């Protein structure tokens, strides 16, 4: 294919997303997490969601062998948490209160929503691995405003009045 990767990336950045932090444990039982905006819904019955992890991510092997995941949909005041989990090779959980979920998956607190999932399928997809997971438990805060990501930047959601 003969197109410019930078322009392609910028073009995809026009698609607005929320931001998630997805956690799991590695084979040694250490907590692992990654910021991901590739998250999306897939199916209601069974309840399935998906996200993709880059082949260069240090946490990829942990995600590949995981027995459970937790997807945290971030609130609009959690850009710092997003940045923390987007930095490779750091102790991302340092000082964070963590609870234990399904299969001891690390749960972060105070997000807009939290989905506890079990693995459903994995697919190689170019320079990423696609993860599909089945949601077994979830909580949400219906009053929370979500963190928004657009064009490589964090943004805020605003209502758009429609005149009919
Ligand atoms: C808003 C945002 C969204 C991101 N989405 C993804 C994603 O969907 N998949 C991915 O592999 N990396 C994504 N990243 C980059 C990872 O969070 C980053 O590469 C992280 O350092 C990987 O950590 P690790 O090497 O410790 O696994 C995103 C980063 C940001 C800031």
Give your account of this protein's structure:
This protein is mainly beta and 164 residues long. The chain has one domain: Pnp Oxidase, Chain A (Roll), CATH 2.30.110.10. The chain is built from 3 helices and 12 strands; from the N terminus they run αβββββαβαββββββ. The strands form 3 sheets. It has a 7-stranded antiparallel β-sheet with strand order 3-2-6-9-10-5-4. The protein has a 3-stranded antiparallel β-sheet with strand order 1-11-12, with no helix packed on it. The longest helix has 8 residues. It is globular and about 50 Å long. The N and C termini lie far apart (43 Å). The chain binds flavin mononucleotide. The site of flavin mononucleotide (FMN) has 18 residues, from β3 and β5. The site of flavin mononucleotide has 18 residues, from β3 and β5.
Attribute tags:
7-stranded antiparallel beta sheet; 3-stranded antiparallel beta sheet; globular; Pnp Oxidase, Chain A; mainly beta; binds flavin mononucleotide; single chain; 164 residues
Class by SSE composition: mainly beta
Main sheet overview: 7 strands, antiparallel
Please estimate the helix content: 10-25%
Oligomer: single chain
Summarize the structure.
Helix content is 13%, strand content 41%. The protein has a single domain (5-11, 18-152), classed as Electron Transport, Fmn-binding Protein, Chain A (Pnp Oxidase, Chain A, Roll), CATH 2.30.110.10.
